[in-house]
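[INFO] parsing input record for F-box domain-containing protein
[DEBUG] input buffer:
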Amino acid sequence: MGFCSFVVGKKMKLDMSRRVRQKREHSWGEKTNISLETLDYGSLASATISGVDWTTLPDDSVIQLLSYLNYRDRASLASACLTFRLFNGDFCRDITDVALSVIAARHEMLESVHFGPDACERISSDAIKALAYCCPRLRRLWMSGVKEINGDAINALAEHCRKLKDVGFVESDNIDEVALGNLNSVKFLSVAGTRNLKWGSAAQVLSRLPCMVCLDISRTDVNLSAITRFLSSSQNLKVLCALNCPVFEGEVDSNTMQSHKGRVLLTFLNGIFKGVTSLFADNSKNVTDVLQYWRRTKNRDKNLDEIVVWIEWVFSYSLLRIAENNLKELDDFWLTQGAAVLLSLLRSSQEEVQERAATAVASFVVIDDENSAVDCQRAEAILRGDGIRLLLDLARSCQEGLQSEAAKAIANLSIDSKVAKAVAESGGINILANLAKSMNRLVAEEAAGGLLNLSVGDDHKAGGIKALVDLIFKWSSNTDGLLEHATGALANLGADEKCSMEVAVAGGIHALAMLARTCKFEGVQEQAARALAKLAAHGDSNSNNAAIGQEAGALEALVQEAAGALWNLSFDDKNREAIAAAGGVEALV
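[DEBUG] output buffer:
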């Protein structure tokens, strides 16, 4: 039977003028105009809906499709779905118990199920039991955000999924830690970010797991006593990952906890890379990036390969979460260790790891969302580590998740003027301009945000003008974030005489006037009017003034822009007097 994977894609959300963006969202129908309410579900067995192959639908579409089906309709999926073996639901928050149970019931060949950050908020232990009963070949199960995972669900996995090797129950509110001790086949286990674990009993039962080689307890309230138990009593444990565990870090003497009986403890205390290095032979001791050293090593040990692949995976998860939380006490960590680890993860051969690393870079560099402020030291640490080239390479990927996350990282980093100059000199403007042409709105939006940030500096006025104008026409009624980025970039570019001519030639005046006249998003209207005002300022040297005057609604937009500026100024008493003295009241009338 052939191999088939089922991937549910990733989606993100943007805002701001010279902007940064960290948070994620998702939606249905990005690449298709299919309506769930009007689907002929009877045609699903042929894998075609309204002329579209449903198995190729993008992003969250298939998940929502499954959620809408009744029992008869679900049954018709059977002949088309029996060969799915991989299911990847990163960033998909629409998945429910019903949908996951249907997937499990109709995909008995499933071997790997992965739901990434915040994907399982509507999933309960019942769906996990359904997976266990229906998918006995399951080898890998990663779920993020399941609120409670009870003993019945874990015991069902232990009983029915005898080949289960890699389990991640992360970011949960409650896990039955005693039942975890029944997962006798599991080699790799992560409970990172999980709250309310009883570490006394957890250390006792998990230490007895006969096959467990790697355990990740990062971002938990684990204590020194439990970690000591893991290191001294576990039968086959080789790696214990405990990144950002404040209780343990407050109790431990860092000089005594690097390793124990050949077991490696990975913490912030003595250096992440230093810990990983101890897995290798002596000739790795002097390398700067031990993960890259491993990737380049020939004739590698298979067992060690599995461990390092897992280490990359859990590092990318934890560093993304830590970056999003942006704790002040970790400022030194990012400069001394974190940036270097993220740069290494950008070089991973695992696309999911690369993508999470890019998202983490976009997040960790931001120190103030509302004011679009970045930490220049962090941004320049990425620059010094060749991170701009790495991110631009990822932006060229054919994988849209990588495209959008790399573009977002480039955009946020480019708020720093040194990074912006490096992006421009490395051909980043052309890369972002090409991404702005994407049929995926989220990719186009991230690219437009990057062009917006690059349009600010005088030394690297952004190209991509035609792409920005075309983007406005393509998405004119779709989204405020994307349009605000595009109009903001054109407003910045319009302040330059040469660029203003290019905007006019590319049809920018017509596009901006259209938005100023018809766009329902207030911020976009304001940006469009500001851009028209900048273009009008160069009327003496080109025909912009005449073109603006001929566009319906353009003059009204400029009048409103001027009136709005006077209105804002008028809240100050002295300004009101000055406006009146300058004839501003009569001008407004």
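[INFO] The first helix runs from residue 61 to 68.
[INFO] shutting down worker
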